[in-house]
């Protein structure tokens, strides 16, 4: 079985291929808000480098959020188009799950943090030493202020390290370093949802019969787009 993984949820996009032998290839590229222009050429290049054709893909995994609203739409529409044309299943995955998956064999707590602006992050919480992301997850996904997150983690501090991963690591580095508990900051290379990891996790979902029809996959924004909020405010003020 050949599975493609796609992420366009952040500034760095990633695509990967995975089969029974493992990761076949992965390309990470800074998109600079040009997701729609660069995604398909990157996919074509990955397939060519791996000696595969698009019609050989048996399933596609895609990050559904949280992340950039525009980026998520582009990645999801691409994955859904492949699924529709090729008649293959889709696996929708959380960007927080994938970030945690990058560190899942770490002994301790894993805290993915994606910058949500205004000193807030999208986050969740996972126990390490598990290949089962679903069972490792011990907190629901939500948007929190960085101070509220620190307070929450302080209340469950059991002496084991908290591994922070994601683009929120650098954005709020000083906050994490002053947290007052054992805080380990993952390197930037671990802070993106890697296409190879997306494809790998999707591969096992599909093996377990957990694929979805492309019509069933939806975005997980965690909060409403700012443009929608601004539109609503403007029209309410005009009433």
From TrEMBL:
| InterPro entries with a match to the protein in the record | ATPase_NBD, Gcp-like_dom, T6A_TsaB
**A GO biological process this protein is involved in?**
tRNA threonylcarbamoyladenosine modification
Is the Hydrolase keyword given for this protein? yes
EC assignment: the record states 3.4.24.57
Q: Which UniProt keywords apply?
A: Hydrolase
Naming one, the record's GO cellular component terms include:
cytosol
Q: Name one GO molecular function term.
A: metalloendopeptidase activity
- Gene3D superfamilies, A to Z: 3.30.420.40
Its top-level enzyme class, in one word, is hydrolase
Q: CDD domains, from UniProt?
A: ASKHA_NBD_TsaB (cd24032)
Q: Does the keyword Transcription regulation apply?
A: no
Q: Which SUPFAM superfamilies match?
A: Actin-like ATPase domain
Highest taxon of the source? Bacteria
The Gcp-like domain, residue ranges:
32-231
NCBIfam families xrefs: T6A_YeaZ (TIGR03725)
What name does the UniProt record give this protein? Answer: O-sialoglycoprotein endopeptidase
Species assigned in the record: Halothermothrix orenii (strain H 168 / OCM 544 / DSM 9562)
């Amino acid at each position: 079985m050949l599975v493609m993984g796609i992420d366009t949820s952040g500034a760095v996009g990633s695509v990967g291929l995975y089969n029974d032998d493992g990761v076949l290839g992965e390309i990470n590229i800074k998109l600079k808000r040009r997701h729609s222009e660069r995604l398909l050429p990157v996919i074509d290049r990955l397939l060519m480098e791996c000696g595969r054709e698009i019609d050989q893909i048996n399933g596609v995994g895609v990050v559904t959020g949280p992340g950039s609203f525009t980026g998520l739409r582009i990645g999801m529409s691409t994955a859904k188009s492949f699924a529709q044309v090729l008649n293959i299943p889709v696996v929708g995955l959380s960007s927080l799950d994938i970030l945690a998956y990058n560190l899942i064999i770490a002994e301790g707590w894993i805290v993915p943090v994606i910058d949500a602006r205004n000193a807030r992050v999208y986050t969740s919480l996972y126990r390490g030493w598990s290949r089962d992301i679903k069972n490792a997850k011990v907190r629901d996904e939500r948007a929190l202020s960085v101070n509220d997150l620190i307070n929450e983690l302080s209340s469950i501090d059991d002496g084991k390290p908290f591994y922070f991963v994601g683009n929120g690591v650098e954005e709020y580095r000083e906050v994490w370093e002053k947290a007052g508990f054992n805080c380990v900051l993952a390197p930037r290379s671990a802070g993106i949802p890697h296409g190879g990891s997306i494809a790998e996790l999707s591969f096992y979902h599909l093996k377990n019969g957990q694929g979805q029809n492309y019509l069933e996959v939806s975005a997980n924004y965690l909060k409403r787009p700012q443009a929608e909020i601004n539109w609503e405010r403007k029209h309410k003020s005009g009433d």
